[in-house]
Amino acid sequence: MSETFFVYPEAVDRFAFDWGHLTVTCGPSVNGAGKFSAGVVHVPPGEGHARHNHPGAEEIIYVLEGSGEQMVEDLEGNPVTEQVRAGCTIFIPESRFHSTLNTSDAPMKLFVVYSPAGPEELLRDLPDFRLVHPPHK
């Protein structure tokens, strides 16, 4: 694989779901990154992803645009929910359950980072997963 330093979301495959989509712009299959993976998530108004976790991985969510409700479970498994908006960084500790819901009337755009790389590939096994290729592929 040749080194790829600069990646635009419209140039790579998109993981589409009933609730929105994730475009992985950095990771082993995109540019050989090995210690983490990252991408952009789009969540339409009123949509969100269900409570889930990434076993063995931490996650960072940065809200680029929009607002909504973010839930992260504490050590005892109790949901901690907060309204978040553009500019907020959310830390998801290793293996911790979490969910995101766009409660606004505008799209929500997130930048996500997983460490170590790999949890995003497990999303391919979800029943509503669809792989969308960029127009030039």
Characterization of the model:
The structure is a single chain. A hairpin with a 2-residue loop joins strand 1 and strand 2. The chain has 137 residues and is mainly beta. It is built from 1 helix and 11 strands. The model has no long low-confidence stretch (mean pLDDT 95). The protein is globular.
What's the arrangement of strands in the largest beta sheet? 8-5-10-3-2-1-11
Number of helices: 1
Order of helices and strands: EEHEEEEEEEEE
Task: Give the overall silhouette.
Answer: globular
Fraction of residues in helix:
under 10%
What layout of secondary structure does this protein have?
Layout: E1 14-17, E2 20-26, H1 28-31, E3 37-43, E4 48-52, E5 58-65, E6 67-73, E7 79-85, E8 89-92, E9 98-101, E10 108-115, E11 130-132
Antiparallel strand pairs: 1-2, 1-11, 2-3, 3-10, 4-9, 5-8, 5-10, 6-7, 6-9
